[in-house]
Fold this sequence. Notes:
- With 153 residues, the chain is α+β, with helices and mostly antiparallel strands.
- 33% of the residues lie in helices and 16% in strands.
- Strands 1-2-3-4 form a four-stranded mixed β-sheet, sandwiched between helices.
Amino acid sequence: MAHDKLFLKSFRKELRDSLTPAEAKLWTYLQNSKLDGRKFRRQHSVESYILDFYCPAEKLAVELDGEVHNIQRQSERDHERDLFLLYYGIKVLRFENRIVFENPNYLLNSIKGEFGKQPFRPAGTSTWKYPGAGYPPKIVCGKPPRQTASATP
């Protein structure tokens, strides 16, 4: 599996130079190893996919999704991409853009909660294997807990 393919270099730089507001805000929390000393990269490529943020030490990708990701076709593409990355041992966390602004502590704690966890890999194997019947494990999706409104007497 190839990381940071040369033919994507200029496109990755263009993406880094034009971050969305949510990506720019999250980067302020992740840059310079601010999150538990883990180094993250912006717009890192794995094969032909470009990840919003990637922590090589944890093999963890963080993706921020806008409204377009709610469309069924895009959602299917995201799922295929996540399965491809998971096959190579990279866990993908997805968050809606708004979470960066509305609940940054939840987002950062969700990311930190994945530190030290490794994808399932049977003992003695050097390549990724899906557990049980060839089906991949459930993709972790970052969604904030539901807040219930309390009734006032």
